[in-house]
Amino acid sequence: MHLDSVTQAVTAFSPLAIAVLTGILAAQTNRRARSDRIMARLGAELAAMGALDDSSAAKPELAAQVEATVKKYKETCSREDSLQRDKLGVSLGVIMGGGGIALGTWSALQGGSAFWWWTLAVPSILIGVPGFFHELAGGNSRGNESSNAAPST
Asked: Which residues lie closer than 8 Å to 114 by C-beta, 6 or more apart?
């Protein structure tokens, strides 16, 4: 195995590895940050409510706000629990995106007539990478949870 082929493989797949890791970490951080913001808000509202006298006119309004924040936190948790990531879709996105990146890198490094392989690489990248991130974010299960939460009549 030549050092050039190893270098080409690392060059081709390092952007894919970075994109996958960035997507996974960003999705986890976003979920945690949303829950943490709601909990911080709830803590501040409870502290403000505890600081008020029982005879204060603002206490019932603040209690209603606390109830709304608790409801929002419950909805956020149920939404996160209902998200389902399609492992096949994520894998297919990695394979298509990674294959497109590898093929595009190879064809660019080869030059000449191999440059026509870009006609396969570009659509593969354009379908695989957004598909990966769509499935990583919950895919079609994001729309299903809101329709399940609506009361039936």
From this structure: 106, 107
